[in-house]
Specification:
This protein is of the alpha/beta class. The protein is built from 5 helices and 5 strands, in the order βαβαβαβααβ. It is globular and about 45 Å long.
């Protein structure tokens, strides 16, 4: 199986670097192109104080600066890549960008929540897997509890 294009989905968390590093290692093995995607989840900003289009645009800029730029500088160090910052439901956007860009593989993290928190929050990784035919590599993220 050839992996010509790898889409790496990252968020603003510290674990984004681990996900990006895993995607980079896969890309280096296959000589693949890489694209990073970050998503502003507009659903988080709906309700009584719904975000304006300008506020959502500002959030997109902040999301890029916080997550992608940090990861690009620390992980990729000159490896050529494409970046996407999109708005919408994270799982839907990841699948859409992967299809539009022609990715062969999607690399993303999961926090591995179980029980009630999983039922309430759902799992972006599970939703992506259910809605794409592309190979999906899920990196487990275990964050230290305080």
């Amino acid at each position: 199986m050839e992996f010509h294009k790898i889409l790496i989905a990252i968020d603003k968390s510290e674990s984004a670097e681990k996900v990006a590093q895993s995607g980079l290692e896969l890309a280096q093995q296959f000589g693949s192109e890489i694209a990073l995607v970050s998503i502003v989840d507009s659903e988080l900003y709906k309700g009584d104080d719904e975000a304006t289009p300008r506020e959502i645009e500002d959030m997109r800029d902040i999301n890029f600066n916080i997550s992608q730029q940090r990861v690009i500088e620390k992980v990729f160090k000159g490896y050529p890549l494409i970046t996407f910052v999109e708005e919408g439901n994270p799982a839907t956007v990841i699948v859409k960008v992967a299809d539009k860009w022609g990715a062969d593989v999607i690399v993303m993290g999961t926090h591995g929540r179980k029980g009630l928190s999983h039922l309430l929050m759902g799992s972006v990784a599970e939703e992506v897997i259910r809605n794409t035919k592309k190979t999906t590599v899920v990196i487990p993220i275990f964050e230290a509890k305080s």
